[in-house]
């Protein structure tokens, strides 16, 4: 959910795999939606692992699971499959994203157990009633006032309820050091430039969760990896690098931008979709926090 904090983000940035918010073009929204879907497809084993870990710390038979900043709903649907007795509520500020969630739920036979709520966490906590599990994947650091959102989540959870917060430790990597054109180290320079633009900046949420009254049940790092053998890897790399490309104008040297454009071309000797040396590499940290 692109809850963009006015105090340190510009309103037209995406920070990693983030939620579509106001001010974006429809094309931009479509590109982000495709990226979120590819993320779920390529990293399906990660989603299964993190929802399995969530189940270990969750109440026994949760009735209501809320996905805060649902995007295209990959997390919502993974949670619906993992918690078969629960109703899942996908919350996002974007009607475009929520329509994707609805369509995916219908395709997967989960429409009867999933509902969507359009809401902006920067305005108010959504009308979702009492909650057993709240899930915020790559969305909490985007809100303007995360302390208030954490207090609201605490108030909404039943006693014994669980909040899971997930963040990317670093932006995902796809490229070998030498891509066969331009200077080696292109991806590292892209990441340095995005770090200067505050992409993916987030704190260690543990003290913030404790300050809101939560007890930390567990914290774990999950690796997100897939090789070129995964059919979506090339498309995932292309969708991701396309999304970050506008943010690199003026931040990356002309030679590097030229190399990036050759990689993003639909065809050509260095095009991402033709390469066999790509791999997704990254880690994400998850905090599981319980309301006593």
TrEMBL record:
GO molecular function: methyltransferase activity
Pfam family of the protein (one): Methyltransf_25
GO biological process, alphabetically ordered: methylation
Location of the Methyltransferase domain: 65-161
Keywords, alphabetical: Methyltransferase, Transferase
Region (Disordered): 1-24
Protein name: Class I SAM-dependent methyltransferase
